[in-house]
Amino acid sequence: xxxxxxxxxxxxxxxxxxxxxxxxxxxxxxxxxxxxxxxxxxxxxxxxxxxxxxxxxxxxxxxxxxxxxxxxxxxxxxxxxxxxxxxxxxxxxxxxxxxxxxxxxxxxxxxxxxxxxxxxxxxxxxxxxxxxxxxxxxxxxxxxxxxxxxxxxxxxxxxxxxxxxxxxxxxxxxxxxxxxxxxxxxxxxxxxxxxxxxxxxxxxxxxxxxxxxxxxxxxxxxxxxxxxxxxxxxxxxxxxxxxxxxxxxxxxxxxxxxxxxxxxxxxxxx
Length: 270
Fold this sequence. Notes:
Layout: H1 5-21, E1 38-41, E2 44-49, E3 52-57, H2 76-93, H3 99-112, H4 117-132, E4 142-149, H5 153-169, E5 173-180, E6 199-206, E7 212-220, H6 221-228, H7 231-234, H8 239-242, H9 261-268
Parallel strand pairs: 4-5
Antiparallel strand pairs: 1-2, 2-3, 6-7
Helix pairs in contact: 2-3, 2-4, 3-4
């Protein structure tokens, strides 16, 4: 009985995954299996048909078909570049039979976002023509970017003036104006969680006798500290015991026994 190339590769893949996971106890590699002969990888959906593979643009299930709205207060150039970037991604990713359905999908999504259909089609056609042009081998000009705020027609007039002035004075420079807009919502950073409230951490206990203990816990650090320090010590109002909540110390009580190595050290060394 002979195995097909697909099943042979599957057996080899499973054996290789088992070999990787056996190299070290901390290694846990996973793999994703194909569904309906297709497997997503980043922005690419790879489909297997017999002995051939085809690729198309992959969108996550959480994609809500929303892009920059046509009526948004933004430069006309940005809206053109949005269409161009979507077309370029489709052209670079899609196989021969997948390009046209992807362009139709781009058209329908942008129409939902308020873009005129004729404007979308003309921009797509112009972008595809750029891909078919033969590259011209010449000296490239140095691109220089200028960021200016977008405030409507004033920004457009300023772009024309600065572009023409730069081209007249510097023949080797290619000016590129980038319009910027103010964020509707300010960028806020997430509050930093205090260290004693964090979990899955590596911690170190330092005793006043310079003994050290390094441990790892999946619990909250404050809960793990409570498990290390005996109640008889936390109830003892001595100065160096109070510091044990952060740098565990000790109280002499050799008759007692604690299940934690740190707790036992604290009990035996006052």
